[in-house]
Amino acid sequence: MYRSDFCMAGAFRDIFLFRDYLRLRALLLLVALLAFSIYLMRFFQVISTYPPSFFGMPSAASLVGGVLFGAGMVLGGGCLTTTLYRLGGGSMVSVITFCGVLFGGLASAALYPYIYSFAGSTVLFSNKTALEHIIGGAADPVLAAFLLMIFLAWGWKGKRTRSQTGYARGYLAPWKASFMMAFVITALLALSGRPLAVNMGFEKLSGILSATLLPSVGEKIPYFHLYSPRLLYGGIMDGGAGPAIDSIAISQLPLMAGIAGGSFISSLRLGEFRIKRLPPARQAFSAFTGGMLMAVGAFMAGGCNLWHIIGGLPVLALQSIVFVFGVAGGSYLGTAFLKKQVLEGWRKGGLQWKTRLKTSSST
Amino acid sequence: MEKGGIAMENTTEDIVLDIRGQICPACLLITLSELNSNRERLTEASARLVIKTDHRDATRTIPGAALAMGYGVAVTQKERYYEITLEHKK
């Protein structure tokens, strides 16, 4: 991810901002490959429960959550996963986004009764969690074929969409990253029996921090005392956002550490690691706000983009389909706001900005 | 350059844009804004835009956009950052 700068926020944002489809194309390829591999695992009975029981019923909360998450990931400079791998590369913007996510996790936990009630009262399809429940047949091979067709069609459209040269050392083309990620994610899914996610890991960090730094606040939030059974590694284990060692602590926290640690090693090997500068105030504000919105959005939608786009979309989970529509809309709104923020900041040019723009003559 | 026996100097001004610490899409948006506001000088080859960035993706997006606009691009890795030079295509 670090070497290709694989970014789902960029996949949505770039189409609205630059009409650049390169990243979206790589994302479609990844989803198509996963739809194929999951169908094969289902065919060979590697996956026992299908459609997966992890996804809930779609509701207006999935859509609103998607909108908030989409806007947040554009403002934050990347989704939760991108924030982690850029953090490993020393990005201060990502540190700010990370803090925003933790704060948003705390706010979401406090609002849990209201969000839960909103999701429960706005269910769109009762007792239906996947498209298969509606159309009555396996739809994932059709989805994979459809996405591959779009991927190939865009390949013929033009060189700029097909590939772009990355001049950074060790650059990996996004489509190659899609193949590598599809392989790793399929292996992890077969091993753990559960799609990847990091949003609960972030919520757990919020829970741990509130229990450590603000115990009087953490104790009063019921969500941090709530643990529910989860299917993991073929067994059932409790998991929640509280500070206990549970299924979240042994699955999502190590994944988060692995993503950040992997990119740290990668950036060291490429001679790029350093603690980077702080961004201008407007961008820092956007990053913090974006982090908060992502946390609240993922909380409302019952999962982050990793969970819904990489985990739910390949199996056509209805909740994930609704979430993706929300993410697209939110990305559009976030892009419009961010463009204004960045360019206004640049045009007004604070003192810090002006001193950075200097001229010199050479013969 | 020699003209009528008199040595003429070609002076190119470097407009240095230090956007280290910033990430996408700010890197590309700011670069495009500077390319537009300095278009005349860049086209006349009296100036070139030198961008310092430590955001890896900017080494893909900025050269891609500049090449599409007809500029010449050179990218070099410096001490923990990249320097992208955009100038009029010779």
Question: What's the short version?
Answer:
The complex is a heterodimer of chains A (363) and B (90). Helix content of chain A is 67%, strand content 5%.
Q: Could you outline the blueprint of secondary structure elements for this entry?
A:
The complex is a heterodimer of chains A (363) and B (90).
Chain A: H1 8-17, H2 22-43, H3 60-75, H4 80-88, H5 92-110, H6 112-121, H7 131-135, H8 140-157, H9 159-162, H10 174-192, H11 199-213, H12 215-220, E1 227-232, E2 235-240, H13 247-269, H14 281-301, H15 305-312, H16 318-348, H17 351-356, E3 357-362
Antiparallel strand pairs in A: 1-2
Helix pairs in contact in A: 1-2, 1-16, 2-8, 2-10, 3-14, 3-16, 4-5, 4-13, 5-11, 5-14, 11-13, 14-16, 15-16
Chain B: E1 2-3, E2 6-7, E3 12-18, H1 26-37, H2 39-43, E4 47-53, H3 58-68, E5 71-77, E6 82-88
Parallel strand pairs in B: 3-4
Antiparallel strand pairs in B: 1-2, 4-6, 5-6
Describe the 3D structure:
The complex is a heterodimer of chains A (363) and B (90). Chain A has 17 helices and 3 strands. Chain A has helices spanning 8-17, 22-43, 60-75, 80-88, 92-110, 112-121, 131-135, 140-157, 159-162, 174-192, 199-213, 215-220, 247-269, 281-301, 305-312, 318-348, 351-356; strands at 227-232, 235-240, 357-362. In chain A, α4 runs antiparallel to α5. Chain A is globular, with a radius of gyration of 21 Å. The model of chain A is unreliable at 350-356 (pLDDT under 50). In chain B, strands 3-4-6-5 form a 4-stranded mixed sheet. In chain B, a hairpin with a 2-residue loop joins β1 and β2. β3 of chain A pairs antiparallel with β3 of chain B.
Major sheet summary line of chain B: 4 strands, mixed
Number of strands of chain A: 3
Q: SSE order of chain B in H/E notation?
A: EEEHHEHEE
**What structural category arises from helix and sheet content of chain B?**
alpha+beta
Percent range for β-strand residues of chain B: 35-45%
Question: Which segments of chain A are poorly predicted (pLDDT under 50) over 5 or more consecutive residues?
Answer: 350-356
Q: pLDDT below 50 for ≥5 consecutive residues: which ranges of chain B?
A: 1-8
In whole angstroms, the N-to-C terminal distance of chain A is: 42 Å
What does the overall shape of chain B look like? Answer: globular
Radius of gyration of chain B from CA coordinates: 14 Å
Question: What integer is the average pLDDT of chain B?
Answer: 85
Continuous helix count of chain B: 3
- Helical stretch tally of chain A: 17
Neighbour order of strands in the largest sheet of chain B? 3-4-6-5
Query: Helix amount of chain A, in percent?
Result: 55-70%
From the N-terminal CA to the C-terminal CA of chain B, the straight-line distance is: 16 Å
Mean pLDDT of chain A: 87
The portion of residues forming beta strands of chain A comes to under 5%
What oligomeric assembly is this protein in?
heterodimer
